[in-house]
Every structure is written in structure tokens, then in C-alpha cells.
Amino acid sequence: MYDLKSLKKEKTEPNQTLESMQEIVLLNEIMQLVQKPIINSKNFVRQDSEWIEVKNEKICSNVQDMLSDPIKNKIFLLIQKKPLNTQQIIDELDIPFTSGYRKICSLIEEGILVESRVLKKRYYKKIIEYTTILKSIKIEILDGKMMVFIKIKSN
Fold first, then answer.
1. Three-state SS sequence of 38-75
2. What CA–CA distance (Å, rounded) separates 82 from 138?
3. CA distance linking residue 78 with residue 88, whole number of Å
4. For the whole model, what pTM was predicted?
5. Closest CA to 66 of 84, 78, 81
6. Using a CB cutoff of 8 Å and minimum separation of 24, what contacts does 113-117 make?
7. 75 vs 96: CA distance, rounded Å
8. What is the pLDDT, as a whole number, of residue 106?
9. Domains in the chain with CATH codes
10. pLDDT one-digit tens code per residue, 102-144
């Protein structure tokens, strides 16, 4: 059986946001295995069968930043359709390589984009396809407080 207490380790490293997004992926996969709604932690709270409220302020800020940045938003919308590698994303959106690469790296660090698969190694470099675990994002502003809700893609 799964011990959820061992999954909720104290976060002390700089990649807390990425680890938090990885935590929700893991919890969602476990939930699908046992068919019980167990996504409840200090970072995420399940609201109903699909929507999950994001409680972590840093993750909420990352989502808001992604939605307000035109290039990041385009990358996110493109990646939702199908997994692509960095060069494909840049070519598809017709954006400069340097800024596109920087935006993609930022989305990876924020946990919005995740590795889908390693295609092949060419000239000692890995070609990695990226995807997103997010199916939908909903933002509500109520009494001066912003709340972020997400839906996770099901496999």
C-alpha cells in the first residue's frame, strides 16, 4: 500500500514549485490506481471529481505569469495538443530561438511543462518531447483573493 506521509517530504530545495507539480502528478496517478480522491496536501486540495484548487502561492503566481505572458501562453496552448520538442515548438510558433528556449526552460522549472519522452540522442544530445499535465486552468477572484483551479489530463 502507498504511504502518503512519505510522499509529503519537507521542501527545502529551490525547485519547490517543480516538486509540488510532481507531487500532484504522483498523487493523481495513485488516485487513479485506488480510485479514491486523495489529492489533499498543503499545495493542492481536490474540490470535486475534476477540479483541484492550488493553494501554493508560488504555483498560483507561476500560472498567472504563464497566462499573462503571450509567448508562454502560446507554448502552453500548443503543448496541450501534442508533445513537441524545443525546436518544434520554436518553429511552430515562429519565435526567436533564444527567447523561445528561455520561455520553455522557465515553463519546465515552473512545472507547467514536463518531459514526455526522450526521442533519440543525436550528436551526444538528447531530443526531449515536452507535454503538460494540465488539461484546464480556471482562475477566480473573490473578495480580492485570487484562486487558481486546475484539471489534470487523464491518460
1. CCECCCEEECCCCCEEECCHHHHHHHHHHHHCHHHHHH
2. 21
3. 10
4. 0.69
5. 78
6. 113/75, 113/76, 113/79, 114/21, 114/25, 116/83, 117/83
7. 13
8. 92
9. 57-152 (1.10.10.10)
10. 999 999 888 888 888 887 766 777 788 999 888 899 999 889 8
Cα torsion through 78, 84, 90, 92, rounded to 10: -60
Q: Would you state the cell numbers that stand for residue 74, as one nine-digit string?
A: 502560446
Q: Residue 56 CA to chain centroid, in angstroms?
A: 13
The predicted-structure confidence for 13-64, as pLDDT tens digits, reads as follows: 546 666 776 666 666 665 555 444 445 567 777 777 788 888 888 888 888 8
**Left, alpha or beta for 7 (phi > 0: left; psi -120 to 50: alpha)?**
alpha
118 and 128 in contact (C-beta within 8 Å)?
yes
